[in-house]
Amino acid sequence: MIYGVVILAGGKSRRMGRDKAELTLNGVRFLDKLVWELSGFEELWISVDDERRHPGIYYPMVSDAFGDCGPLGGICSALMVCQADALVVVSCDVPLFSAGLAKKLCDCLEGGGDAAIAVTEDEREHPLCGVYKKSCLEVFETCIKKQDYKMRNALKMLEVKKYHAGRDSWRLRNINTPREWEKLTKRSCLAVCGWKNSGKTTLIERLIPVLKGRGLGVAVVKHDGHSYEADVPGTDSYRFFQAGAAASMVYDREKYSLTVRQQRTEEEVVELVPEGELVLLEGFKRSRYPKLEIIRRESGEMPIPDMAGRLAYVSDLEIREELPVFRPDDIEKIAEFIAEKYERGELL
Fold first, then answer.
1. For 300-320, what is each residue's pLDDT tens digit?
2. I want to staple 295 with a disulfide (CB 3.0 to 4.6 A). Which of 162, 198, 288, 315 is the partner?
3. What share of the chain is helix, strand, coil (3-state, %, to 5)?
4. Distances (CA, A) of 191 to 220, 226, 273
5. Distance separating alpha carbons of residues 177 and 29, to the nearest angstrom
6. Gap between the Cα atoms of 235 and 53, Å rounded
7. What phi and psi, each to the nearest 5 degrees, are found at residue 99?
8. Residue 206 · residue 317 · CB < 8 Å
9. How far is the first Cα of the chain from the last one, in angstroms, to the nearest whole number?
10. Helix ranges restricted to H, 162-255
């Protein structure tokens, strides 16, 4: 079976007060983020009310053939024009939706049925995060003729499979209001703290690939309590900076490194990081950010006194506290703990 994609971008956005497709996350429009994520499918459409009203959308568009029928009309219109056997449907206000989740929905439909929809851990069904075969067309058109535009009523007349998203449920988060958008775009941070030589760098290094495997983009900020060399001595960029340049940059086709001579607060430094859904901070023990504290037997140290925001310990010692304690080698469990805190919005 050949699958395509339709991203629903024709809503009125009344609660948001502006076009939700134009909202951004880390500087990228919701719409562009979803297009990039789902670009591996054979066919991709953007469902809009009238394509003449959307000059800023540069992807193939399909106008609503029925007019003011809500998502039902948009999905039906896309199924009428697509070449694919079925369409993955996602609303533009679900910017965390992933290609992996789309594939799982398609796999769910392979066993038969007319459609497959996602269900989150709270048992909430998401008809606008699903897959619909062309066999749905007749039912959808009938509902539209009857002026019954509720997706749930249409689904009652179809054979619908349900994909339980489990720990991927956070990817189905809808952004409908300015407050929800503000919370989404606020940078999630976790400080990894500990006394000197407690293993902070090693722990972060081991956590990055595991968190990345869970679909999280990770960036790292390291605090240095001393003055550090900003570049490798002897390189051209190092020489420029040492000569007194206000800034020095070196780049190639894949990456760049920028050194700026400027004082910044901890909060300002974190906001300078351009990428990453989650920023791991090495150090920052006196900051306002949530914290994971490492305590190692060989260092002989006790917990850092008067440290606010501690969520858990990583230690090879017995620590008698109410907070969770993870062994240093329990990387999967630590990553799961961090991911759950991120998904619940507790790392802000």
1. 678 899 999 999 999 998 888
2. 315
3. 30, 25, 45
4. 10, 19, 15
5. 16
6. 52
7. -65, -35
8. no
9. 42
10. 178-185, 200-213, 236-242
Amino acid 299: pLDDT: 73
Q: Which two tokens stand for residue 225?
A: 């309590």
* Locus of tokens 């499979």: 161
| Cβ-contact 257, 250 below 8 angstroms | yes
User: What would the mean pLDDT of 113-138 be, rounded to a whole number?
Assistant: 96
pLDDT at 93 over 80: yes
pLDDT of residue 269: 87
At residue 59, the pLDDT reads: 95
If you ran DSSP here, which 8-state letter would residue 169 be given? G
Contact 300, 212 (CB under 8 A): no
Under 8 Å between Cβ of 126 and 65: no
What is the mean predicted confidence (pLDDT) over 258-271?
Answer: 86
Least confident of 154-163, 183-192, 225-234: 225-234
Query: Residue 50 CA to chain centroid, in angstroms?
Result: 29
